Amino acid sequence: MAPQAGFGAFVNIDSRIPSPPLILQKQSHALPDLPTAFELDELSKASRGNAPSLPSTPAGSQTPRSLHELEMSRPPSPEYHDAAEVVQTWTNPPINKWRLLSACLMNLGNGMNDAAPGALIPYMEKDYKIGYAIVSLIFVTNAVGFIAAAPISQALQTRLGRAKTLVLAESLMAAAYIMLVCRPPFPVVVVSFLFLGLGIATNLAPNNVFAANLANSTTALGWLHGSYGIGATISPLMATALVNHNHPWSTFYFISLSITLLNLLLAFLSYRNYEKDTPSINPLHPTPSNPNPSPSRSKVLKAALTNKTTVLGSLFIFCYQGAEVSISGWVISFLISYRHSSPSRVGYVTSGFWAGITLGRFLLSPPAHRLGEKRAVVLLICGATAFQLLVWLVPNVVGEAVAVSIVGLLLGPVYPCATAVFAKLIPKRLQMSSLAAVSALGSSGGAVAPFFTGLLAQEVGTWVLHPICVGLYVGMVGCWVGLPRVVKRRE
Asked: Where does the protein end up (predicted)?
C-alpha cells in the first residue's frame, strides 16, 4: 500500500463521474441570435465606411421559421430597371459574331430594296405608262408598312422570340419579292411594297437594339448600317446593268429574293437561343417584398411613345430618311430632266451616293464617336447642306455626281451616331418599343418625302428635290438640338 500511497501523491484519481450537460432542446429560442440579411448588408457597409456598427440583435428574437418569414426578413427585391448587366461584345458570347453577321446581311438586303427604285422608276413608268405621281404610290404603301409595324414589334418579340420574329420579317419580304418577279399589274406592285415596309421595319428594330447594346455600340451600328450602304450601292448598279441588257425591270428582284431566303435561314440558326444567352430585361416575378414588379405591355408602349427622346428621335429619322431616299429616288430624274443626260449615263449616280454613305459609316463613325456624337452630327449635317446646294446650283453633271457622293459621305455616319445617342437616352426597359417607333415612324419619312417630291415634280419639275432636302436638314438640326443631354446611365 505504501507504493500506492506514494503514487497517489502525484496523481489524484477521482472516481466520481460528473453529470453530462443537458441536451439542447430544438426550440427556436434556444438557437443563437442570427442577424438578418438586411443587418448583414448594413454591417458590411459600416465596416467599409468606418461607420458605427448596428446594435446587436435584441435578446429573445427568433430566426425565421418559414419561407415566407425568410422572404419578409430580406430587403425588398431590386427593381428590374436598377439591375446591372454584363455588356456583351461582338465576340462574347461567340455566337454573337454570327448574329452580327446576320443583322448586317439583313440590313444589306434592306439597302438593296430601298435604293433599287431610284434606278428602276424610269423603266417602271415606261412599262406601266404612268407618271411621277402614280409611281410614287410605292413609297406611300412602304410607309404604311413601316407605321403598321411600330406598335406590334414589342408584342412579336415577346410572343415569338427574336429568331421567329426575324424569320417572320424575312418571310414577309420574300412574299413581296415573289410578287415583283412575276411582273404583275401595278396595283400588285403597290401592295408588294406594303409587305416590304412591314418586313423591313420588323427586322430593323431588333437589329438596332442588338447592335446598340454591344460594347462600343457606335462602331457596331456603323457596321450594321454600313452594310445597308453596301446593299444600296450595289443594287442600282445591278438594276441598271440588267435593264441596259434588255432584261425587264422585275428581273432584279430575283437577286433580292435569293438574299432574303439566305437571311431567313441564317437568322433562325444564329438567334434561336438568343433568349438563353442574353439576360432578360423583363421584370422580376412577384414576391411578397415586391408584389407589383412590372407595368403592363400597354403601359410600356405608352411610356415609350411619350418619351421625349422617342418623339424627337422619330422626327429626326423622319427627316433623315426623307432626305436620303428622296435623293436616291429622284436625283437621276433631276439629272435627266434638267441636265439632259440619258438614264444609262446617270443611272450610276445613285450608286455613288450610296457608296458615299457606306464609306461614311465605316470610316467616319469611329472618329465621330471620339469627337462626340452630338457635336459630330451637327457638323455633318451642315456639310451635307453645303454640298446639296452645289448639286442644285452648279450645272455640271460630273461635278454634281461628285457632290452627290460627298453628300452621301457626310450623311453616312449620322444614322449610327443618332441611334447610339438614342440608346443612351432611352431606358433599357423601353428600348425595343422606342427604337421600333423611331425606326418605323421615322423611316416612314423615307416614303412620305419622296412621295411629295414626286407630286411636286409632276407640277413644277424635279428641281424641287433640293429645297425639300435643305428643309429636311434644317428639321434634323432642330430635333437634334432639342434632345436631352446625354448622361451616364446606371442600368
From this structure: Membrane
